[in-house]
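Protein folds are increasingly written down as discrete tokens. With that in mind, we are printing a sequence and the tokens encoding its fold.
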Amino acid sequence: MTIRTYNLFISHSWKHKDDYNHLVNLLNNKKYFSYSNYSVPEEDPIIGVRTDRELKEAIRNQMIHASCVIALAGVYCTPSKWINYEIELAKELGKKIIAVVPWGNERISDVVRDAADIKVRWDTDSIVNAIREVCD
């Protein structure tokens, strides 16, 4: 059985890294699912950038490899200039966006909701099925 590896960029806020880490753990523990993570977690930041422009270019260089973008859709995302930039970049690059509604949230970011090609709840199978749907 050959398992396809999906290239993912997970848009998230470093201030809410627990959501990001929980999502990565869900994906890591899913049987018969393989992915490469092109996002920029706090513990592995992009080194050597000094300006917002350099950081934008570095994010572009990461995202260009992704098959799709997963955006954590907590309401905390709306004021984040970086999440907004990542969504704009995903659209510019023609990447499908999967909005994941964080566990227990009823409300989600308008920015993420409006940009999403598909919205899913915080459930491993729903997230993986969405990845397969938009990337295959």
Notes: The chain has a mean pLDDT of 85.
